[in-house]
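From the pipeline queue, job 12 of 40. The input is one protein chain; the requested action is below.

Action: predict structure.
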Amino acid sequence: MKSFKNKYLKPFKNWFILILVIFAVWMFFFDANSWLIHHELNTDIENLEKEKEYYRKEIEKDKKALKELSTDEGLEKFAREEYYMKRENEEIYIIEYEDSLKTN
């Protein structure tokens, strides 16, 4: 049993190796710039990049909608479809199908 202990503890008798191991453990787990904190920050950066791309796509969709609404035909189409507006002497019939109804 004594040779077993000596076999694994022999490298730690050297002060330089012992200090190096303690330093590595400290930097890996406990320091303010540890690997764990860097991993967490990198995950946050990836999530923010995905969110940034999502908002860029939404901005592009909104720009297209604004461009369409800037014309008279597009504005009239939007008013008729969304707010059921009509011209004088015109009647509107709203036809809803079962599968298009919003149910909870």
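Job complete. The mean pLDDT is 83.
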